[in-house]
Amino acid sequence: MTTVGGRDEVQRSDASQLRVVGRPLPRTDAAEKIAGSTRYAADLALPAMLHTRLVRSTLPSARLVRRDTARARSLAGVVAVLLGEDVPHNEVWVDVPGQQTEVRALKARSQVLATGRVRYHGQPIALVVAESEDVLAEAEALVDVEYEELPGVFDPEEALGEEAPRVHEDGNLLAEWHIDSGDAATALERAPIVIEGQYRTQFVDHAYLEPEAGVAWLDDDGVITIRASTQVVEHFRDIAAILGVPQARIRVIAPYVGGGFGGKEDMTVEPYLALAVLRTGRPVRMVWTRQESLLARPKRHPMRLRYRTGAENDGTLVAQDIEILADTGAEAYLGALVLLYSSVTAAGPYRCPNVRVRARAVYTNHPPCSAMRGFGAMQVVFGCEAQIDELARRLQLTPDEIRRRNAIREGDRLPVGQQIVTPIWLGETIDQVLRAAGPRPEPSRPHCRVGRGIASNLQPYGRLVWLQDTAAAWIGFQFDGSVTLRCGVPDIGGGQAASLGQIAAEVLGVDPARVTVHFGDSARTPLAGTSTATRQLYMSGNAAHLAATRLRDQTLDAVAEAAGRARGALRLGPGGVEGGGEPIALPRALELVRGLGVPLEVLATFHGPRGRAVARDLAAERVFPDFTVGTHLADVEVDCDTGQIRVVRYLACHDVGRAINPQSVSGQICGGAAMGIGSALTEEIVLESGINLTAGFFQYRIPTALDLPDIEAIALESGAGMGPFGARGIGEPPIGPPAATIANAVRDAIGVRLTELPMTPERVLAAIRAQAHTDPPRPAPTGP
Amino acid sequence: MTTVGGRDEVQRSDASQLRVVGRPLPRTDAAEKIAGSTRYAADLALPAMLHTRLVRSTLPSARLVRRDTARARSLAGVVAVLLGEDVPHNEVWVDVPGQQTEVRALKARSQVLATGRVRYHGQPIALVVAESEDVLAEAEALVDVEYEELPGVFDPEEALGEEAPRVHEDGNLLAEWHIDSGDAATALERAPIVIEGQYRTQFVDHAYLEPEAGVAWLDDDGVITIRASTQVVEHFRDIAAILGVPQARIRVIAPYVGGGFGGKEDMTVEPYLALAVLRTGRPVRMVWTRQESLLARPKRHPMRLRYRTGAENDGTLVAQDIEILADTGAEAYLGALVLLYSSVTAAGPYRCPNVRVRARAVYTNHPPCSAMRGFGAMQVVFGCEAQIDELARRLQLTPDEIRRRNAIREGDRLPVGQQIVTPIWLGETIDQVLRAAGPRPEPSRPHCRVGRGIASNLQPYGRLVWLQDTAAAWIGFQFDGSVTLRCGVPDIGGGQAASLGQIAAEVLGVDPARVTVHFGDSARTPLAGTSTATRQLYMSGNAAHLAATRLRDQTLDAVAEAAGRARGALRLGPGGVEGGGEPIALPRALELVRGLGVPLEVLATFHGPRGRAVARDLAAERVFPDFTVGTHLADVEVDCDTGQIRVVRYLACHDVGRAINPQSVSGQICGGAAMGIGSALTEEIVLESGINLTAGFFQYRIPTALDLPDIEAIALESGAGMGPFGARGIGEPPIGPPAATIANAVRDAIGVRLTELPMTPERVLAAIRAQAHTDPPRPAPTGP
Q1: Angle at B525 between CA B519 and CA B529, to 5 degrees
Q2: Phi, psi for residue B347 in degrees, rounded to 5
Q3: Considering only CB atoms, which chain B residues are within 8 Å of A524?
């Protein structure tokens, strides 16, 4: 990875003085992961442990006529078979914010175990608890469920029709958002250039290596403790509500998570494990099969996007009119929020005076859709950046010219009304990828054409401001000067925990190898919020920074007093307490501090910016804390005989603010780009009348290392972010541009615009054929 | 149990307003303990877990000529056999405070695994690590140790001789303490009455149900985590020193402990578990057999006591001259501190202007002696209270008269120089037992004689002030108003955790069932210090009280602001926030608090009183934070044919300050008295030339429920202690008086003074016979 520095004038901290931050330290979890010894959620066997599995609906829409567990229960080794009626609070209510003109949340109802009817293929109906995994399989088959099939709806546009079968009683519209900035209709009428397009994205799975899994047990003091693969230890509150017990009686531990990507933001195994423990009092393990994971865990929303973009003849944007229709599947989950992200970012990282957005999320009898890396802000890039690319082509501008001309800057307002308060370096990200790209490749074979595309994106980091996000950290010196940091962040593979250690080591002047980070424990590490929304480095990083800074200051205050040195001269560094005389080794200094009765511990809470909740008609001073931008560049080769797209070269540059650990940043950028390339080219959950046909990784094709190009990550360090040392978040941003980048490159290569994901060979060939019938070949457009 | 109230003038809090404190709540751990489902330290199986066992010395004093592990290592299933040379830091240095005139600590050396020589029977020499417990036993036998026997010393007086074999190179005197208050020699010369006596106590084992045990593994971020049966999670520092790793890399978790009594104050399995994990990287379990536990874990110091007590003719004490010789066994451990407790309390709860104490702890080739409930303050009661009893007899005073006349009071100074700063209600404790005792029993058979005795004691609570004791607690409201308290106290069966919950519930106005206490985790619960020294209710109770009070105050401040109510009117109670209008339910009130950005969490540290370290010649303004007193009464029946002592009735009254949970207080008083009765009558570790002959509970006879009388506990609530709500500590005090109480009752019954523990039938018969030869029968003395 290349790390490129920011402009001096905006750097909030002087990088040259950083000792630990910015060093590409091997992550503390690296060795064990390479050795395969990381103990993931289910890698724990407890004495007398039971096993549990869900019986799931085989139909996408049906009334449950009969659910008979008698035969299953009579099987030797079966301990319990639970139905919805056995769940203390089987109804779960999900917030659906902003759907009325007053700021008041709607609630959508869901069930832990379905009782009256099922709404999607794979919906949980019964929970089998048994002495062994072998018994489970047998018992599952003995649970007798009789269905009466009901008509379903499998297309979001049809679902909006008056006569469509209702997925939920109160209608199929889950949520809608409107943005009206300026007057897009009039501006479009008057615009000399208008580009129109329709785009479709697909059902995408998170496809992490570690499936949904966990172990739970009744621990000391009657606390039900759930060690689960999750991004959100705060679900202890939801579990408490389902079980009807005080929140203090539920503890969720997230050990290292083998991939989350949003798929472990909603609960998966947690309530079922907790129910089984509550019922049996024994330890319980649950591990979903890959098929279950693909079948029934929430997916990325497929979206239908309709863009109209108006511009002046010089390429200056004057209007964007955007319609978004998202298939949210059969349950609400986080659908309304995903759609909000789409709405706020749909116009891209550009200045545009007139923007209209109409976004709807619609129930169908498809698997539920919810959070996935990019969280709604990803899908719209495929539309927005196709428009920008086509606009450039129409005006014979290079893709970088059009973007530079319209790039949003600090002080501008987004269509939603939020002012950008940190420097936005879109132009620099374009510079970086163009500079690094080098000459365009030559086709490797005669029937191949090559092309280059770029695409940019705008992605928030940090949660919606009305959620009043906080993160807390508790840090302490041990007597020997080593440091223990506790912060409830789940480490979902992004190096979340290790980065916090690096921040603390920087502030406290100690060797990072002497800092331990305890993370992901809802009861015994301070709550740090969700490992979602590209928020942990920003929120928990700031919490760790705040706690460490306070610890440093109170330590130095005390040493100054005890040793009679001028406070101003003192600092913490590798020598211990430095300045004002001979360095005082840290253990000795801490002895002085303790002698004054000053604690070696600090618990600190960082508060993100707070704002008011939004209404359906979005217009807010602030929706997110901040944003970051990035630009990707792809060189592709399209085989015109087979339709195969080969990505030859791939570059991704993002403003990361500050690369706390460049290795982790590189991992996030390369991983996000790779995931985006998978979405662009091969990945899709295939459904037929609501039946999920995707049973495993033979059908669901994620790119392997051999399928992928070398991805070059470029971390632009503006130093201007709101995180510690000027960092921005980087977890989600890199997944935004790949599909658009590749589509733009394909357009460049073969003159054809692909508008539907994934861009399979079949679709490439079909597009080539359609183009041949309708359009005369056009001159190869000017690439960057 | 009877709870009797304190005098109003000294009650620090108004008990009538207490809602939760003082309620005999069933302990949160009660149900699981009764069901047998409590998961003790070793009740955890981890995948790929190894098992480990120590090879121990078969001789009490020998040079290790050869230690050959080759055969053991070649056995299938043996993973490693470690010797002292394999331990990164095999030498352990133990503080021996105050042994020089300057305030400087001596250090005594010990070894994790013996290399050059062994000093006691059972000393660890090698550590075998194997795949199964079966393999362990076989491998242990294959470790080839060749000894060259060395002369040993098995008597503390002999050990002080010039020619005695040296247990350690620097001589056999581990520690000595002197107290010289006034001029005891002159006062004794002038005293009209002088009582003299010599007394002996024995080697006593803690005999807890749960043996030394634990499981350890390498957890997230490379932290070696040790789940062990321990009273001291802070040993993580000692383990780090042995392993040569930063303290932050070691975590000790103490789950519910099945009895500690001081025997788990020093490390037991911890360093061996940690070494095995460090060596193998795999989870490891270690459980000591009962024989190992009896053989080689530190015991209660046997002491030889020599008392001379001088009094005026009216019974007023004028002088005490006390010599104490303690057999500290072969290793230092906490021997110097145990002896310090003996020295400070040897003169009992009495005013005496002239006191001389000479106390020595001496190495022998016996098993090491260290902490046990009472911690040196127990043994001396047997001497002191025999003297007081004999003095009363000589003067024809009742036992209560003599004690009331000399009872120490608030404002008095102990011989060591410490002023008593809280009310001392010795007279009330005597009143209570006499009032409850009723008439003396009649002998059940003709050859039996009955007698009544009482004895009082003085016991500190809280650690030595120069240790600058602290305890921290971290408390938080959950959104639903339930409360999570984290406090690193190990719960060793005394209900330490549950009491903290009760304190927090009182302060925060919530139902105690909605308070969860997370305890005993050195990394993830704030360090609360050792569960020793009768300090947890005082220290951690105050920490919990402080944290809860701050949380309450900041919550009410915020609610006042958010709801526009007068702060002074607000309080937390069952209705939530009460006062100044309609009650605001807690969840709603907490929403208001969060809305203002006020955290729902507090981390607070309580500091005990601090003082200067002591020198060998003890003279200090303060040695302990405070003391408490108690009085026991026993009616015994002695069978003059068999020598059997039967305790017919037993009463124990202590000033507990405040009974936070009367059930727990009763448990402590009854348990302590029962343990003291065991020590008085039957318990003894038997050694023959350093060979420990006590292999199990057939030889080591602890009293069963059938052996014990009903013990009536009387909790005197002075409300005057330094703990929360005026509580004092009660963990150790009840073990002090029983031996003296019974000895005094036996003296009353048969006119014979027993001076050696345990008071077995053989000793009773021998004493009766000796008395018959030397002394004319004396009139039955006046009992209380």
Answers
A1: 75
A2: -85, 0
A3: 486, 518, 521, 524-525
Judged by CB atoms closer than 8 Å, whether chains meet at A220 and B248 is answered as no
Rounded to whole angstroms, the Cα distance separating B364 from B172 reads: 7
Q: Which of A33, A95, A215, A220 to mutate to test the interface with B (most CBs of B within 10 A)?
A: A220
A451 and A480 in a common domain: no
Nearest CB to A248; choose among B498, B516, B521 = B516
Chain B residues close to A223, C-beta within 8 Å: 516, 518
Q: In terms of Cα–Cα distance, which of B231, B215, B223 is closest to B272?
A: B215
* Backbone torsions φ then ψ of A6, nearest 5 degrees: -90, 170
* Among candidate residues A582, A607, A632, the one where a domain is terminated: A607
Q: What is the DSSP string of A445-484?
A: STTEEEEEEEEEEEEEES--GGG--EEEEEEEE-TTS-EE
Q: Can you tell me the mean pLDDT for B153-157?
A: 98
Residue A311 and residue A209 in contact, taking contact as beta carbons nearer than 8 Å: no
- ipTM of this predicted complex? 0.94
Q: Are residues B626 and B718 in the same domain?
A: yes
Question: Out of A221, A256, A474, whose CB is closest to B220?
Answer: A256
- Distance, CA of A263 to CA of A204 (rounded, Å): 11
User: What's the Cα-to-Cα distance from B538 to each of B543, B545, B639, B650, rounded to whole Å?
Assistant: 9, 10, 43, 27
B635 forms beta bridges with B452, B649
For residue B709, cis peptide bond before it (omega within 30 degrees of 0): no
Judge whether A512 and A574 are in contact, CB under 8 Å.
no
pLDDT band for A775, please (50, 70, 90 cuts). Answer: low
In-domain check, residue A499: yes
> Both A130 and A258 in a single domain?
yes
3-state secondary structure of A292: helix
Task: Please tell me the total count of domains within chain A.
Answer: 3
**Where residue B16 falls among pLDDT bands split at 50, 70, 90?**
confident
DSSP state of A397: -
Give the structural domain span for B475: 470-607
User: Are residues A585 and A680 located together in one domain of the fold?
Assistant: no
Domain edge (last residue) among B287, B311, B339:
B287
- Averaged pLDDT, B701-707: 93
Let me know if residue A1 belongs to a domain. no
Average pLDDT, chain A: 94
My answer on whether B420 and B314 are in the same domain is yes
Full-model pTM: 0.95
Query: Which chain A residue is nearest to residue B44, measuring alpha carbons?
Result: A46
